[in-house]
Structure formats: C-alpha cells, structure tokens
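Lab meeting minutes (informal)
Scribe: AK
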Amino acid sequence: MTQYQQFEMPQQLRQLTERNVEQACSACSQFMDTMAQATSLWLSAMPPNETTSGLKAIHARAARFAKQNAEACFAFASELANARDMQEVLGMQGRYAQTQMQGYTLQAQELAWLMARAMQSMQPRS
C-alpha cells in the first residue's frame, strides 16, 4: 500500500490566508452595503403602493440571504485555512455543502412565498 504524505500548510501561509480572507470579507461587506443603499434609494423613488412594498420585502430578504451566504463562505474559507490534512478539508467541504444546500432550499422557498404574495397584491381586485 502506498502511504500518502500528510498535507501540512506552513503557519505563515495560514496567517496570510487568514488575512486575505478577512480583507475579502471586509470588501464584500462594503460592496453589499453599497448595493443595498443604492437599491433602497431606487425603491424609495417609486411611489408607495402594494407592489413597491412587495418589492421592498423581496429585496430586504434577498439582501439578508446574500449577506448570510457570503458570511458562511468566508467562515468556510477561514476554516479551510486551518485544515491539517486533506481528509479534514474534505470533511469540512462536505459539511459546508450540506449546510448551504439546506439553507438555499429554505431561502428559495421563502423568496418564492414573498414573490407569490407580491404577485397576488398586483392582481386587480373584483
């Protein structure tokens, strides 16, 4: 049987990776905040009615989901930077994928419900 050498990331590379993840997370957070402000300004320029309130609810929820997903991704990247071997990396990746897929399913269901509600509010009343 062939023995594989254990993967070991040098401590300096771990620290550099962690700093890079933190910087990317900060930049992403700033970008998301700027996009949320721009979208809020755009939505506030629309006349208030049931349609715009539905759009605002969808936007707010989608922005919250995007932020949660980005935070989960950066947390995963930080966790990976501290992996000791490939088996640990694969275990982390499997848990992350499973958790995120469950979260995406719930998020999609909630957004679909909000969209259906917004569409109903746009229907003419008899």
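Next up, CB showed the second protein from the same session:
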Amino acid sequence: MCGLGRGIASTGRLNPDGIEPALVNLRRFVALARAIGVDHMAVMATAAVRDASDGEAFAGEVERQCRVQVDIIDGSEEACLSGAGVLAGIPDADGIVVDLGGGSVELVRVCPPTQPILSGGAEQISGGISLPLGPLRLDGPGDNTKALSETIERALADLPVCGRGGTGKNLYLVGGAARAIARLHMEHTQYPLHIITGTPLPERRPKASSTLSAGSPVNH
C-alpha cells in the first residue's frame, strides 16, 4: 500500500512518502515477471499519476529504473479495462462496474453478449468515466460525514452511465477499496469462506439481495 494519491487534492502532486515504496514494488514485480519468462508486460499508470503535476516525471523514473514502457491511461480507458476484467470472469455480467480505488472511482456499463448495449451492435462495454473520488482523495473532510456525503452525491448526480439502462441492474465492485470493504464485511459477519470474489453483502433494504466483491454483483 503505497498511497501515491494521498493528499493530491490539496497539493496536486504525488505523495512523496509513497514514491519510493512504489518504485521498490515496481522493480520487484518487473523482476519477478522477467524471472518467470513473461514475454509481454503492459505497465499502466492510472488516476494518481495522470492527475499529479509530477506524474509524468514519476512514470519516466519507472521507465528508467525498470526498463519498461509506462502508459498513462485516461479515465475512460481505465473504466473500460475494469469492465473487460469483470466480463472476463463473469461473461454474463449485466449492470455497472464500479472500480473503487484509493484516488478515483471508475464507472462503466457492461452487458451480456446477447444484449449489446448499443442497438444493433456487439458492444458489451460503454460509457466509461472516471471521478476524483476515493478514500485517499476524500480525506480532506475528515470526520465531517455530511460534507463527505454531499461531495459524493454531487459527483454522482445525473451521470449518463447510471441512467443508460443501468437502473435496477447489478453493481460489480472491483478495486482495492471495494475489496477492503468486502473483507471487513466478511470479518464482521464471520463469513465462512475466506474468498473475497463473490462475497455476499446484503443491502440495507432487506427485500434486496446483493453481493460485494472484486468482480461480483451488487443489486441496486
């Protein structure tokens, strides 16, 4: 847990305490990948790096130390890649993928191949967006729950991806923050299986059943 995006909302820069641990981890992962003979590595930087004023410099340092190309992807591509990941594991996924990380949240509409999103087309992924919401990005309001809720509600208001056939569909939650929530729920309820993917999480409304996991559905 490097927390590159911690404090970025106020400083506009990467968290200086997270840069060195991130470089150490990246060097380790690249070394392990080369040791087992990986013939292609796609290294992508997401929200923290693309939003930070020193993000390109950090990506350049990664390229220098690890001898790999780093692509800084935009929010739409990040959302669509999350959607593709869910469809790879759940081919009949039908709803909205929500990728909740430390510094951003990505949303994208997905549907089964038999129900293409665009009329007459075969697209299973559409409407990917990225919002500057996440535990590291929203640490400014502190314990002010009301201010935090209002910030999130303003950001989510009238999003096309939520209204584009998404009402009543499943939510597929992925990302580190979502996994942390799922693990907390597992511990709190003494869930018998220590497998995060597919972990059930009931909604506040008892009439609805739902699940929360990395790539599992949540009814809404």
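CB comment: The chain has two domains: 8-72, 75-219.
No objections, moving on.
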